[in-house]
Amino acid sequence: MSRMLISQRVRDDPRRTVLVATAVLVAIGLIGSALVALAGLLVSPPSAPPAVAATTPAPTARTATWTDTPADQVLTATLSAPSGGWARSGELGHGAGAPAPYSCPAEGTSPAVSLSAAYTVDGAPVSVTAQAFTAGQGAKVQDTLAAAAGSCAGGAAVQELGDTGPGESPRLATASRSGVDSAVLSWRRGDVLVFLAGTPTQDLPRYARDLDGVLGPRLGPVCADQDATTADAARSPYRPGYLPYTVASTVRIPAVATPSPGTGTSRSLPAPNLIDRSAAPSGPRDYPVWPPMPAPVAEPAPPQAPSASPPTSAEVRVPAADTTGPGCGWAFTGMKAPAADAAGLAAARTRAENAGRARLQAASRAWQTEVTRYWTDYAAYEKAVPGYLAYRNAVDSVNAAWAAIDGQWARYRTDLAAYEGAVAARADFLARKAKAASDYAAEVKRCEAPQPKPSPSPSKKPSPSPSPSPSPSKKASPAPKPSPTKKADGAVFRPDDTSLVIATVMNVPLAREGCPADRPDILDQDPPAIPSAPTPPADPRPVGAR
Predict the structure, then answer these.
(1) What residues are paired with 131 via a beta bridge?
(2) I need a surface site. Which of 44, 96, 277, 446 has the fewest CB within 10 A?
(3) Can you tell me the distance from the alpha carbon of 159 to that of 327, in angstroms, rounded to the nearest whole number?
């Protein structure tokens, strides 16, 4: 039995199995040859001698040597010497999975390369897992793992770090499991995902920036696009949702002639606006004016002008061979670029460019039609402008005539207000003078009235009270002579008399208060004069129009 030895490293990418596929095809070819020889024996005539089987050369054993891909080289170099101050513990691990909560990969999220290592940073342990995915899949895998982080392995709280974190879409996931707090900071560059695991108390953002500062420059020469997006995943024909790769191509057509107005004169687009200002008729007045305001005329509006020229170039998307690949590219993980049908791509490119030129030509024809219609509309606009300008001039004349009448009525109303103010002032003066005369007459009458005479009040002398009897046991000593004591209502006790004298004193004024009455000055003043009443402006309207 023939034997073929092939040493191969297994990868997820179907292109990695090219050697195995070749061996299978060789085996199929050998089996087919045997079948054909057997068929020849079956269809040979019975009398013919049996054919002599050709000698089949023995298969040659070949050994395929595998060279590390750029992804292997970059991740190995980065994790071997991550940054100053990082002390690695042990050897690099191969095929490691992502830490929780990113440890629940969905279908199609297996990495092509996965390395891990443990370190001591600032005296505390951390671990790093770096994974490289096939062309264009990094961003999509990152979004898939982030969406599942809330429920994977018990879930975690995920915080978007934005511009403060490293790489693309940095996130910090924290969780507490069985009393142990953990934190994982993840980020991406192209198709490479990095997971830095530690505790919430460690400065993981700083550690991640230090590590990313080493990873980024090493990816530069071998990763086509470190800022790839989820949309780039559609460029891979090995994944669902494939969209053929396209590039931008600029197509051009010759410029077309600009239609001229029907008059044959050459004009540029847009044509000028022939009305510099609108008519502004004055509003109605509450007094007669003349002449009357003309009937309103609608202001013609200039037509909307098309662009000065149609586009003669446009950018179209045309199919092309995707030799580099999305994300970090095909070669980054050892993939082979998809086979391209050069003739088919050229034909498709031609069709796309011809379609773009056809659209430009259609747009140019539509523009010419639009320009022709514009000149027709502009001619109608030009025709309507003189009538409107005549209306505007008539309005200006009427406004001027009404302004003169406005001035007359303004002066009249000023004079009328002054006249009415003088009339009111005279009436107020006369009212105050009449009141002053009435008040003065009342005061004079009060002062001239006779004064009433006072009548004396009678005095009462109370009966004497009995004298106290002297005490026999003691000799009465003479008491001091008390001073007179005042009583209420003018009563006075005299010490040498038992009588109570009550005196009534009447205060009789010598003259009445406020008398003689003062004569108010207003009684000797003349009322203010009243000017002549103003005459309203004459009615400017003809007699027949009043």
Answers:
(1) 114, 193
(2) 277
(3) 25
What digits encode the pLDDT tens for the residues 517-546?
Answer: 999 999 999 999 999 999 999 999 999 998
Helical segments of 4-50, H only:
18-43
Amino acid in the structure at residue 199: T
pLDDT tens per residue, range 299-325: 999 999 999 999 999 999 999 999 999
Q: What is the pLDDT of residues 353-397, one digit of tens each?
A: 999 999 999 999 999 999 999 999 999 999 999 999 999 999 999
Written as one letter, the residue type at 531 is P
Task: Please name every residue paired with 86 in a beta bridge, in sequence order, or none if there are none.
Answer: 121
Bridge partners (DSSP) of residue 251 are: 314
Question: What does the block give as tokens for 448?
Answer: 């001239």
Q: Which residue has the higher pLDDT, 338 or 489?
A: 338
Q: Read out DSSP for 401-432?
A: HHHHHHHHHHHHHHHHHHHHHHHHHHHHHHHH
Measure the N-to-C terminal CA separation of the chain; round to a whole number of Å.
130
Cα separation, 424 vs 3, whole angstroms:
134
Please check whether residue 282 is in contact with residue 399, taking contact to mean a CB–CB distance below 8 angstroms: yes
Most confidently modeled range among 24-33, 105-114, 412-421: 412-421
How far apart CA 125 and CA 120 sit, in angstroms, is: 4
**Integer Cα distance of 535 and 49 in angstroms:** 150
> Which amino acid does the sequence have at 529?
A
- 250: part of which helix (H) or strand (E)? strand 246-252
CA 490 to chain centre: 95
pLDDT tens figures, 85-136: 899 999 999 998 999 999 987 777 799 999 999 999 999 999 999 999 999 9
CA gap 125, 54 in Å, rounded: 69
Beta strand segments in 83-205, E: 86-94, 113-121, 124-132, 157-160, 168-177, 180-189, 192-198
